[in-house]
Amino acid sequence: MRRIGRWILEEGKRVLGIFAYLWVVFGILILHEHIVLSRHGMSHGFYGLAFLNAWILAKIMLVAERLDVRPHFQGRPLIYAILARSFAFAVLLVCAYALEEMVLGFWRGKTLADSVPFVDAGGILGPVAVVSIMAVALIPYFTFRELGRVLGRRRLRTLLFRDGTIMNQDRRSANPT
Question: Transmembrane stretches, by residue range (predicted)?
């Protein structure tokens, strides 16, 4: 029973971490959209969308992270795995968002064709732009994840949030001159 409790707590922490990161990213994107629209005299006011989408997509990312692509990048620089995961998850998140929008549109009485997001964004350029933005936004997240895997999560947290000089101390003790 304790093992199950620990697993639930660990998964809860992971989904909250993913959620917090996505909420910040989506919040910034919505803020940017608000600024751009307000320059043209249009209003945009639903900021709860960042919260809802971050929560839904965090759960999707948590499940999708179990589909590991790291064996394909074994022995290669970490940047390959980081970029591949960022791009793959960007595609996944954009597809999940599009599916969500289509279901909501269909539920509101729209046709499926009218519910597809990005249609008015200039053809294929809209989804490509959104995937590109999301892929770049996910690079820091996957960099943190990959460095945590290689260095160990505890050590990475220590380096980032407590004492960034610990690596220098480790090097000095490993190479006494």
Answer: 12-32, 44-65, 77-99, 124-144
Span 29-57, pLDDT tens digits: 878 777 877 887 776 655 566 777 788 88
Structural contact between residues 53 and 22, judged by C-beta atoms closer than 8 angstroms: yes
> What range defines the domain where residue 18 resides?
1-51
Q: What count of other Cβ atoms lies within 10 Å of the Cβ of residue 15? A: 16
| Beta strand extents in the chain (DSSP E only) | none
Tell me: do 81 and 46 sit in the same domain: no
- Tell which residue, 141, 160, 153, has the closest CA to residue 26: 141
Interatomic CA distance for residues 69 and 102, integer angstroms: 29
Question: How far is residue 121 from each of residues 2, 125, 127, measured CA to CA in Å?
Answer: 51, 7, 8
Pair 90, 135: CB distance under 8 Å = yes
The number of domains in the chain is 2
